[in-house]
Amino acid sequence: xxxxxxxxxxxxxxxxxxxxxxxxxxxxxxxxxxxxxxxxxxxxxxxxxxxxxxxxxxxxxxxxxxxxxxxxxxxxxxxxxxxxxxxxxxxxxxxxxxxxxxxxxxxxxxxxxxxxxxxxxxxxxxxxxxxxxxxxxxxxxxxxxxxxxxxxxxxxxxxxxxxxxxxxxxxxxxxxxxxxxxxxxxxxxxxxxxxxx
Length: 197
Known about the structure:
Blueprint (H helix, E strand, L loop, with lengths): L3 E4 L4 E3 L10 E8 L7 E2 L5 E2 L1 E7 L9 E6 L2 E7 L7 E5 L10 E8 L3 E6 L2 E7 L11 E3 L10 E10 L5 H9 L13 E5 L3
Antiparallel strand pairs: 1-14, 2-13, 3-10, 3-14, 4-5, 6-7, 6-13, 7-8, 8-9, 10-11, 11-12, 14-15
């Protein structure tokens, strides 16, 4: 089928909706990389290969921000509980897990305690937070950090957002048997679905 082809400029922006700000959440997507992200040089002279797949509320220092992210061949997630650098939490996988020219299923979950990252149905990172989310009010972006700092290059498909933390077993089913997922109107806790056809 079809997918969103991100060439470094293409993205989808979804207007803010209160349903996109659940206390517990899962954000998931399929991605395919044909090449690694080109490093961006920051104002401090460092290189940055992070690319946001899903990004809500500007950036990782913004109140309510959550983001499903890659960094070269790593998978990660951000969650900002109350705004500012001191309230930003991140979980990153080990290096070497993403591969080129292959579809990968990525997911982040937050159950009110743990921020988890899964790749192809397997947990690869976690971070203990243990605080309630502070909701934001800005749009949701697919294919870039919401404030436009960096854009994803590759393909993105089947983006879903839930108001609950899916189990690793559920995510494994999504990753290994995507056709087994219920019709969107019957999925428990589904608050956003973007098939990107």
